[in-house]
Amino acid sequence: MPATQTSHEAPIGWRVWWLRDFSIMGRAHTHADVEINIPLRGGPLRYLHAGRIVEVPAGKLALFWGGIPHQLLSTASGCEGILITLPLPWMLQWEMPEPLTQRLLSGDLLLEKSVPEETAGFRRWVEDFESGNAVRRKVALLEIQARLHRLALGMSRRPKKSTSLVLVGGEARMEAITRHINGCYLENVTVEEIADAVGLNHRYLMRLFQAHSAMSVWEYVVRLRVSHAQRLLITTNQKITDIALESGFGSVAPFYAAFEKFGGGKTPTAFRQAHR
Question: What confidence tens digit (pLDDT) does each residue in 110-136 have?
């Protein structure tokens, strides 16, 4: 990730970076953009994403929606590669195959192996973007669109089973906690109930979670609820009141407050209009 470690609540927009070192993220964050990570040297990138630890080895392209809380936990020193952010409405307008869009908005991190011949093209995307030339940027964007269509060609609707990683200590506990939360965040759940479910004292769980993600357990729950609401705003015509209730909020007032804080500064209505 870029060296400036902000929470990126506001959309980042269309950007392409060449990173000479992926910086560890001090906290989990969310943003409305689609993100592409391509580590080309060093690695792997080790993410906490949607309740599980995911490794992105060098030479693989990772695609995910930033609306799901995510955090780069670790990587090898000197890991180099490409970081791309795209406004979500652009991807939706590209009419990508439905399984890709569905899995992306449902919180999957999609991985595909790149080939050595693509490295020069990846570098050219950076050069085209940094040139500031509108035509070169348009060509780069068309090539990225084609690359994502190619990724979609071999996809099925059903997510692939992730490779089991050897996790120890706090990292293993964090995955257990976030995995449980990802299965119950729409319910009227308490921190004590989460702690009981994963076999930890609730005070210890809160300290552990804060230390590893720089956010509270409850903030993580609320961010998941907001991302769930964002998905419904994009993909359905449900009334906002119904979406608030279906997303785990007891009433409309806390929904609007959470959406303003963690939804990129837009109201639910404005978010829906911007992504249709």
Answer: 998 877 788 899 999 999 999 999 999
Three-state helix/strand/coil letters over 135-198? HHHHHHHHHHHHHHHHHHHCCCCCCCCCCCCCCCHHHHHHHHHHHHHHHHCCCCCCHHHHHHHH
Confidence of residue 170 (pLDDT cuts 50, 70, 90): low
Alpha helix stretches (DSSP H) within 73-133: 88-93, 98-105, 119-131
CATH code (residue 70): 2.60.120
Tell whether 37 and 133 lie within a shared domain: yes
Angstrom distance (rounded) from CA 195 to CA 190: 9
- Count: domains in the chain: 2
The C-alpha atoms of residue 221 and residue 33 are separated, in whole angstroms, by 20
**Residue 192, domain CATH:** 1.10.10.60
Question: Other C-beta atoms within 10 Å of 263: how many?
Answer: 25
Instruction: For residue 3, count other CB atoms closer than 10 A to its CB.
Output: 9
Full domain range(s) for residue 142 = 15-153
Q: Given 153, 177, 207, which residue is the final one in a domain?
A: 153
Amino acid at 147: R
Looking at residue 102, what is its pLDDT? 84
181 and 140 within one domain: no
